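Hi C.,

You asked whether I'd gotten around to modeling the 391-residue construct. I have! Everything is below, sequence then structure, no commentary in between.
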Amino acid sequence: MTAGRRWLSSAATSPSAMYASLVETRAVRRDPRQEAVLPRLDRLHAELNGYIAHRYRKPLSPIAPKRGFAASLMSLLRQSDEPAAVERAPKGLYIYGSPGTGKTLLMDMLYDCASVKHKRRVHFNSFMVNVHERIHRWRLSRDTDAADPIPPLAHGIGAEAHLLCFDEFQVTDVADAMIIRRLFDVLFEHGIVVVATSNRAPNELYKNGLQRELFVPFIDQLAQRCDVVNLDTDVDYRTVGAQLTGTYFQPDNVEQRRAFLSAFETVTHNAAPEKRDIPVGQGRTLHVRCCVRDYAAIAREFHTVFLDGVPHFSIESRNVMRRFIVLVDELYQRKVRLVCLAAALPTELFQRSDNQAYDEGFAFDRCVSRLIEMQSKEYIVAGDLARKKRS
């Protein structure tokens, strides 16, 4: 059974107590690899109790305007205290491993238990979309592009969240890579604590990427600021015990197409389709769906998406494949129902090649795992509960 966030409760005193409760109620299955991470989660949970990043702490008392010897000495001490404060910031966590191994579950337990007033939990794709939007707005508000948007952007993000939890941390674009390096330099300097999940180890991030040598300092910084945990296991818990529903039709033949269209008519009550424009930000409306922001808009707008004609993917259709993976990621994060008419089973959609990029292998596996989970009764119920909570 897949443990969605509906089972998590901040009433638990610690991540390990929450995990024990989930095991006892059979919401999750006990896993030795997951249990081995619990002491680290508990340690960080204790260190985060009431945590305020040093950059945003208010002074205990006003500074006297007189600047004699004592005032000068205090000023010097304050200046020298900032680097030390960074070192005293709790060390975060970077949990990586294969899809479906429980990385997100562990991070969410920590997030829900953490006694931090300002905290944020976000999918990394969505976070980067928001970063680009903030940069865009910042530049529109200025007369020149000469100034650097990263320091004020990082300060604003840090003010909103002293604990940042990222699901599915990944870097595939050179522009993102350069922004991430500089942005996180400032966040770490401000004392922001980072917890992240990923399908790959830190030293595998942005592997073979353009100008990767400029990104490598971020990897070193990440290793200093976060404990790195490998959660690889042979079991994909998204697919264990899943009760599958009729939301995935294959192969794409006359019989399956008839069933697919019948499902569509049932959901829509035979209503005629209507064309709709969806605002996606930066003054745009959605006509051609081709990027993360567009797919995120679809996921926010609809509770069910019907996708016709999902093909086999190969190295020749790499761009189409990437867009499909991003769409599945966005729908999954919002717990949107996905009804597919596809050429084959999820495990047979992706034709691997020796020429495929390193990151694509991880993306394949994650997408297959999610496509299977999205067919489950548990996923459908989780989506219904999430929508009721948002409404």
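If it helps when you're writing up: Confidence is low (pLDDT under 50) at residues 75-82.

Thanks,
B.
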